[in-house]
Design goal:
mainly beta; globular; six-stranded antiparallel sheet; Lipocalin
Length: about 100
Amino acid sequence: MFIFIDAERNQDVFEVAVHEGISCLFFYENIYVGSCCLVQGFSASGDEIFWNVASDTVVALLHLEDEEDGLLLAATEDGFIRASQKEKLVFEIEEVKPNLRL
């Protein structure tokens, strides 16, 4: 279970089920959650806006903005960095070691 809390108002904003646990988070205009073989994105109201599989546990996430839809980079424990745009895989890079940060 993932609970998004407004700390200034001390109240829950929304909660969603993340069944595989959470291994990393990235906050931008939306919230992206990495877990075991899965990346999910949620809007500020808790609606799921992104869902994609990964080859291993996601250890780092980064959103790059561009004129269209932007790219979501996901690094996994098996050493891959994958870039997705609107749930479509754009490219992937295999590294020698897992990346811990993007």
